[in-house]
Amino acid sequence: MAGFKDWANPLVRPHIRPYVEVSSTVSEFYQAERLQNTDVDLLQLMWADFKNAPGQYFYIKELARLRDGRFVIPMKWLCVIDNETRAETDCADVYVVEYETATGIAHLHADQVIRIQATELIDNVLDLKNQGLKICFDDTAPQWTKHMPHPVRLKAQGRPTFTVGLMSWADDVSGNRSKQYNAHTNVYAANLNLPHCKLQQEYFVRFSSTSPTATALEQLDGFLEDIGPDRWHEAYDCLLKQEILFRLILRVDPADNPQQSELCSHIGLNGNKFCLLDQQLIQKARDLHHKHISSADTQDSRLKNRKLKGEACQAVKNEIAGKIEEELMRWLTEQPAHRYSKIPEDSPLRTQIRPGDHYNKLLVLEGES
Rounded to an integer, what distance in angstroms lies between the CA atom of residue 125 and that of residue 135? Predict the structure, then answer.
């Protein structure tokens, strides 16, 4: 899995870029504007000045104090690159907080977002509490202001935390060294916090799994067990020389057109028939038309009237056709009694692929772009 060994590898770790970069030129994934607009809870949660204050961690959605005495709440960590000198500066987009010392009530100005240099932060929420500052926001503040310190800070227990963007893909292979023909499917992954020039090298591509029988989705089902915003993993950071926590967020899931078609249960490029559901729907429509209109034994009683001709007869048929459409729509939208939504939240069946459950986890995975 990409990420587990990257932190401990001295050939890889110096190239990892944990923060979203703001640059006039876009050449890397972590410089894309779309990533800047991603949910902040799926980006890097923590910042620290590892050179001057390595043990002081600042988290998003936590109250902090600047050197000039103002209170703020960081919401996004950024690395801003100067257009001329290409110098890099760690910055933060923050909410301005108005704190009343007399009452201990804090008011968050959600309409005032400013960008500051991260080094201007001097006290985090733990420092403020140790100084005796009571943190209480007024009723207009968002719900998350009631959860300080950040839940991930408590989980980290003093360790730095990082978010790794991930790209995974599957490839069907027809041969290998031992046999001339041996069809199998491989799953790979790559660390999107690395520069593109590194990802072009085979050394930085991570092999995940392979199988001659399991499909790409079946392998990815196991692959996704280690991925998600709340699934943290331990690793050793050779640059910081300490243990860290990191999580994997799937950002990109590339595939060629035939494979994307297969993974999404699409008819495919070589299909010459409708999909199974379409065939069933067409057959159902034919059966209902035969039952209510064509068959002399079961057709609507009004059609048996021989005096019914012309526009009157057509009007009756149109009315029956409308009822057939309504019945088809009910049949199409009706869910089976054993459907996925009826499975209890704590049931292991929710994490297993079962026969008859045709859904793709990749389509609903949080963080994927």
Answer: 9
